[in-house]
Amino acid sequence: MEFKFNCEDALGCNSQGYAILEGSYENNIRECYKLHITGILDCIGEESSKQQGLNVVKTSFYKFFHSQDRMFIKAEKNVIIGYLRVGKRRIFIRDEQNNYFQEDPITVIDFYIVKNYERQGFGKVSFNY
Predict the structure, then answer these.
(1) What's the pTM?
(2) CA 25 to CA 59: how far, in whole Å?
(3) Is the dihedral of CA 128, 103, 23, 53 positive or negative?
(4) Residues with Cβ < 8 Å from 111, sequence gap 6 or more?
(5) What mean pLDDT comes out for the span 31-37?
(6) % of residues, the chain, pLDDT over 90
(7) Secondary-structure class of domain 7-128 per CATH
(8) Which of 24, 38, 70, 93 has its Cα between 20 and 30 A from that of 58?
(9) What's the confidence (pLDDT) of residue 99?
């Protein structure tokens, strides 16, 4: 997914081309990059939902930065290759004696690799990262 600006600079990617964003830290984004990051998250979230056949967009700038989630985004210059969004979610589990209890494990909220970059190992690297 190509943009008209340097995504690595806007996201503050490391030497491997990954940016790690924390949902609750919107204020740490430099104002000059806020529109770029908004565009990136909204576009990749919409594309992810389309590719998964979902009726609802799971990831957007607003949804992400009003959460406690973490996002790993892979970029190369002005191209976004994909992302992995994880966060804690409350789930209810039933044990063998039919007793219910709740846990808050870290779960995958959304995951997407742009079609041209699928099957090149970017997904595995993202999960390992």
Answers:
(1) 0.83
(2) 16
(3) positive
(4) 48, 82, 83, 84, 85, 123, 126
(5) 82
(6) 29
(7) alpha beta
(8) 93
(9) 92
